[in-house]
Design goal:
Blueprint (H helix, E strand, L loop, with lengths): L2 H29 L4 H4 L2 H18 L12 H15 L11 H5 L6 H18 L3 H13 L1 H5 L5 H4 L1
Bound molecules: protoporphyrin IX containing FE (HEM).
The site of protoporphyrin IX containing FE has 20 residues, from helix 4, helix 5 and helix 6.
Protein backbone atom coordinates (compact mmCIF):
# COMPACT_ATOMS: atom_id res chain seq x y z
CA UNK A 1 0.00 0.00 0.00
CA UNK A 2 1.39 3.36 -0.95
CA UNK A 3 1.45 6.43 1.32
CA UNK A 4 -1.65 8.00 -0.28
CA UNK A 5 -3.75 4.88 0.36
CA UNK A 6 -2.47 4.59 3.88
CA UNK A 7 -3.43 8.20 4.55
CA UNK A 8 -7.00 7.55 3.29
CA UNK A 9 -7.20 4.43 5.39
CA UNK A 10 -6.10 6.38 8.46
CA UNK A 11 -8.60 9.18 7.82
CA UNK A 12 -11.36 6.62 7.18
CA UNK A 13 -10.57 4.80 10.41
CA UNK A 14 -10.60 8.02 12.36
CA UNK A 15 -13.93 9.03 10.83
CA UNK A 16 -15.51 5.68 11.73
CA UNK A 17 -14.08 5.90 15.25
CA UNK A 18 -15.46 9.38 15.80
CA UNK A 19 -18.88 8.41 14.43
CA UNK A 20 -18.89 5.43 16.77
CA UNK A 21 -17.86 7.55 19.76
CA UNK A 22 -20.49 10.22 19.06
CA UNK A 23 -23.15 7.57 18.50
CA UNK A 24 -22.31 6.09 21.90
CA UNK A 25 -22.31 9.49 23.56
CA UNK A 26 -25.66 10.24 21.96
CA UNK A 27 -27.14 6.93 23.12
CA UNK A 28 -25.95 7.46 26.65
CA UNK A 29 -27.47 10.92 26.72
CA UNK A 30 -30.78 9.61 25.39
CA UNK A 31 -30.93 6.64 27.75
CA UNK A 32 -29.73 8.16 30.99
CA UNK A 33 -28.38 11.72 30.94
CA UNK A 34 -26.73 13.22 33.98
CA UNK A 35 -28.28 12.34 37.32
CA UNK A 36 -29.89 14.96 39.53
CA UNK A 37 -26.86 14.44 41.80
CA UNK A 38 -24.56 15.47 38.94
CA UNK A 39 -26.75 18.40 37.95
CA UNK A 40 -26.56 19.62 41.56
CA UNK A 41 -22.76 19.72 41.28
CA UNK A 42 -21.93 16.23 42.59
CA UNK A 43 -20.15 15.96 45.94
CA UNK A 44 -18.80 19.52 46.13
CA UNK A 45 -22.04 21.07 44.91
CA UNK A 46 -24.27 19.14 47.32
CA UNK A 47 -21.96 19.81 50.27
CA UNK A 48 -22.08 23.55 49.50
CA UNK A 49 -25.87 23.46 49.17
CA UNK A 50 -26.22 21.70 52.54
CA UNK A 51 -23.85 24.11 54.29
CA UNK A 52 -25.83 27.03 52.84
CA UNK A 53 -29.21 25.57 53.79
CA UNK A 54 -28.13 24.91 57.38
CA UNK A 55 -26.85 28.50 57.63
CA UNK A 56 -30.22 29.69 56.27
CA UNK A 57 -32.11 27.53 58.83
CA UNK A 58 -30.02 29.09 61.61
CA UNK A 59 -30.90 32.61 60.40
CA UNK A 60 -34.57 31.78 59.81
CA UNK A 61 -36.53 33.11 62.83
CA UNK A 62 -39.43 30.71 62.14
CA UNK A 63 -37.34 27.55 62.57
CA UNK A 64 -33.85 28.45 63.91
CA UNK A 65 -34.73 27.26 67.42
CA UNK A 66 -34.95 23.67 66.20
CA UNK A 67 -31.22 23.74 65.45
CA UNK A 68 -30.01 25.28 68.73
CA UNK A 69 -28.67 22.10 70.36
CA UNK A 70 -27.94 20.10 67.24
CA UNK A 71 -24.52 18.67 66.34
CA UNK A 72 -24.20 20.57 63.05
CA UNK A 73 -21.24 18.55 61.72
CA UNK A 74 -23.23 15.36 62.11
CA UNK A 75 -26.31 17.02 60.61
CA UNK A 76 -24.27 18.22 57.62
CA UNK A 77 -22.79 14.76 57.04
CA UNK A 78 -26.17 13.06 57.27
CA UNK A 79 -28.08 15.55 55.13
CA UNK A 80 -25.33 15.44 52.45
CA UNK A 81 -25.52 11.61 52.42
CA UNK A 82 -29.33 11.70 52.38
CA UNK A 83 -29.44 14.09 49.43
CA UNK A 84 -26.63 12.27 47.61
CA UNK A 85 -28.34 8.89 47.92
CA UNK A 86 -31.74 10.36 47.02
CA UNK A 87 -30.54 12.05 43.83
CA UNK A 88 -28.61 9.18 42.28
CA UNK A 89 -25.20 9.74 43.84
CA UNK A 90 -22.78 7.30 45.48
CA UNK A 91 -23.70 7.38 49.15
CA UNK A 92 -25.04 5.23 51.92
CA UNK A 93 -27.28 7.21 54.22
CA UNK A 94 -26.60 6.12 57.79
CA UNK A 95 -28.81 8.60 59.63
CA UNK A 96 -32.23 7.91 61.06
CA UNK A 97 -35.39 7.62 59.00
CA UNK A 98 -37.38 10.80 58.40
CA UNK A 99 -40.24 10.00 60.79
CA UNK A 100 -38.01 9.01 63.75
CA UNK A 101 -35.77 12.03 63.14
CA UNK A 102 -38.54 14.61 63.18
CA UNK A 103 -41.38 13.05 65.17
CA UNK A 104 -40.43 14.54 68.53
CA UNK A 105 -40.13 18.07 67.12
CA UNK A 106 -43.84 18.85 66.83
CA UNK A 107 -43.35 20.44 63.41
CA UNK A 108 -46.16 22.56 61.94
CA UNK A 109 -47.02 22.78 58.26
CA UNK A 110 -45.58 26.31 58.30
CA UNK A 111 -42.30 24.97 59.77
CA UNK A 112 -42.08 22.40 57.00
CA UNK A 113 -42.80 24.97 54.28
CA UNK A 114 -40.28 27.38 55.75
CA UNK A 115 -37.53 24.73 55.88
CA UNK A 116 -38.27 23.67 52.30
CA UNK A 117 -38.08 27.33 51.19
CA UNK A 118 -34.58 27.52 52.74
CA UNK A 119 -33.51 24.37 50.89
CA UNK A 120 -34.77 25.73 47.56
CA UNK A 121 -33.06 29.08 48.18
CA UNK A 122 -29.80 27.22 48.78
CA UNK A 123 -30.25 25.14 45.62
CA UNK A 124 -31.09 28.23 43.52
CA UNK A 125 -28.06 30.12 44.74
CA UNK A 126 -25.76 27.25 43.72
CA UNK A 127 -27.41 25.80 40.60
CA UNK A 128 -28.65 27.89 37.72
CA UNK A 129 -31.21 25.38 36.45
CA UNK A 130 -34.95 25.68 37.10
CA UNK A 131 -35.48 21.98 36.35
CA UNK A 132 -33.11 21.03 39.17
CA UNK A 133 -34.95 23.33 41.58
CA UNK A 134 -38.30 21.84 40.54
CA UNK A 135 -37.04 18.27 40.92
CA UNK A 136 -35.63 18.94 44.40
CA UNK A 137 -38.91 20.63 45.36
CA UNK A 138 -40.83 17.53 44.23
CA UNK A 139 -38.56 15.21 46.23
CA UNK A 140 -38.97 17.31 49.38
CA UNK A 141 -42.73 17.44 48.88
CA UNK A 142 -42.82 13.65 48.53
CA UNK A 143 -41.14 13.43 51.94
CA UNK A 144 -43.71 15.66 53.67
CA UNK A 145 -45.83 12.79 55.09
CA UNK A 146 -42.77 10.98 56.49
CA UNK A 147 -41.25 14.13 58.03
CA UNK A 148 -44.60 15.29 59.46
CA UNK A 149 -45.37 11.82 60.77
CA UNK A 150 -48.55 11.56 58.74
CA UNK A 151 -47.38 8.84 56.37
CA UNK A 152 -49.84 5.97 56.22
CA UNK A 153 -47.98 2.73 56.88
CA UNK A 154 -49.23 -0.71 55.94
CA UNK A 155 -50.13 -1.58 59.51
CA UNK A 156 -51.84 1.77 60.16
CA UNK A 157 -53.66 1.61 56.86
CA UNK A 158 -55.17 -1.83 57.22
C1 LIG B 1 -38.35 17.25 53.40
C2 LIG B 1 -37.97 17.89 54.50
C3 LIG B 1 -36.82 17.43 55.36
C4 LIG B 1 -35.80 16.58 55.09
C5 LIG B 1 -35.52 15.82 53.81
C6 LIG B 1 -34.97 16.49 56.28
C7 LIG B 1 -33.85 15.72 56.40
C8 LIG B 1 -33.14 15.56 57.56
C9 LIG B 1 -32.05 14.63 57.75
C10 LIG B 1 -31.51 13.69 56.67
C11 LIG B 1 -31.61 14.75 59.00
C12 LIG B 1 -30.45 13.97 59.66
C13 LIG B 1 -31.00 12.81 60.50
C14 LIG B 1 -29.95 12.19 61.40
O1 LIG B 1 -28.98 12.87 61.74
O2 LIG B 1 -30.12 11.02 61.79
C15 LIG B 1 -32.41 15.75 59.63
C16 LIG B 1 -32.25 16.19 60.91
C17 LIG B 1 -32.90 17.27 61.43
N1 LIG B 1 -33.93 17.97 60.85
FE1 LIG B 1 -34.73 17.63 59.06
N2 LIG B 1 -35.50 17.32 57.23
C18 LIG B 1 -36.63 17.90 56.71
C19 LIG B 1 -37.45 18.81 57.33
C20 LIG B 1 -37.15 19.40 58.53
C21 LIG B 1 -37.90 20.48 59.12
C22 LIG B 1 -39.19 21.07 58.52
C23 LIG B 1 -37.25 20.82 60.27
C24 LIG B 1 -37.58 21.91 61.26
C25 LIG B 1 -38.13 23.02 60.92
C26 LIG B 1 -36.13 19.94 60.41
C27 LIG B 1 -35.24 19.94 61.45
C28 LIG B 1 -34.27 19.00 61.67
C29 LIG B 1 -33.42 18.98 62.86
C30 LIG B 1 -33.47 19.94 64.04
C31 LIG B 1 -32.56 17.88 62.71
C32 LIG B 1 -31.46 17.38 63.68
C33 LIG B 1 -32.04 16.31 64.58
C34 LIG B 1 -30.99 15.80 65.55
O3 LIG B 1 -29.82 15.63 65.19
O4 LIG B 1 -31.36 15.57 66.70
N3 LIG B 1 -36.10 19.09 59.34
N4 LIG B 1 -33.35 16.23 58.74
Amino acid sequence: MNWKNLRFLAIGTLAIASITISAFAGDEEAVAGPTLYERMGSSDGITQIVEDLIALHQKNPAISHYFDDVDLDRLTTNVVAFLTAGTGGPANYEGRDMTSTHSEMGLSVADFDSAVADVLTAVKSNVNDDDVVAEVAAILESLRPAVMGTAVTDSAGS
